[in-house]
Prior knowledge:
Layout: E1 7-17, H1 27-36, E2 42-43, E3 49-53, H2 60-80, E4 83-86, H3 104-113, H4 115-118, E5 124-130, H5 134-144, H6 148-155, E6 160-161, E7 164-165, H7 171-176, E8 182-183, H8 191-203, E9 214-215, E10 217-219, E11 225-232, H9 237-260, H10 269-282, H11 289-299, H12 301-306, H13 310-323, H14 326-337, H15 340-351
Parallel strand pairs: 8-9
Antiparallel strand pairs: 1-3, 1-4, 1-5, 2-3, 5-11, 6-7, 10-11
Amino acid sequence: MSDHPTFGVEEELLLVEHGSGAPVPRNREVADRAGRAGVELDLELTSCQVETTTSVQSSTEELRTELARLRRVTADAADGIGARLLAVGLPPVVPHEFPITDTPRYHRIAERFGFIAHEQGISGCHVHVAVPDRATGIRVSNRLRPALPILLALTANSAIYRSADTGHASWRGVLWARWPSAGPPPHFESEDDYDAMVAMMQDVGAMLDEGQVYWDVRPSADYPTVEVRVSDVPATVDETVVYAALVRALVMTALDDERTGRPGDRPSTHALRAACWVAAREGVTGERMPRLLDGLVERVRPALTATDDYELVRGGVDRVLADGNGAVRQRAAWQRRHDVSDVVEEAASATVAGL
């Protein structure tokens, strides 16, 4: 396994009340409790969210073990303050606005971006995969652009929002696109091209700093990795592991294509935005999605075989296509009684399933 790129995962998770399912703005208390249990949590923009971060991993087996431990400790810490932990792309129940976590940078973001920042509670999953250097990371990001809508559909987990069916599998994907620096990135010709775009967006006030590069795939600002950010946080640890394994295989395939000079597809940014909207709308229930997912898995099959993850990913994708993902299960829970408490219960159970 040491011959293959290492990878790691960040999961953004929501804190809610036991009874109502409303977000609980107490992330510092949960982080303090988790810290005493040996898990360091990051505080997100809104104070009802925390983020877990795995260490650098070599195998999906190791990754699953750590993801399960992080969710278990975080769920216990939430329970210790009378809250519940939900792995959902958006809270099914929301307040009028979300309190901002009390840090100088987050207050600057809230002041600059107004209600885009205040109406958040948006929770994604970020997968980092090691690459040799930043220039390679930008070229790999270019090659991953066509896969972004398929990855979003696979992980969609935010169908119910404001106690209503949004009509979308990933309403998070729709809301997230309001940020001027979010969504599928342009194709970049070079590091200079990338840096010029980031500098321009800062100059005009569309982002405060490089930390606000929210594109669905990007070279990490902090690590020698490509970071894929398109996903809703998956409902279960097993779904996160399948997603992360698929992302690593995509990066490995892109690196191999770079070495062999295989030309990559270059869809326009507008076409990708349209495809991401369709993916957010339909999720895995879209008419085209089984074919697209099958094609993606088979395209990266050599990489999955090399990491011994083909059966894991093939089986995981088949289960999602047959039984649904988080969005499908949320909608099924909602349709039973049109009672949002059923959605909260479904999400809470999935969050800790198999831990």
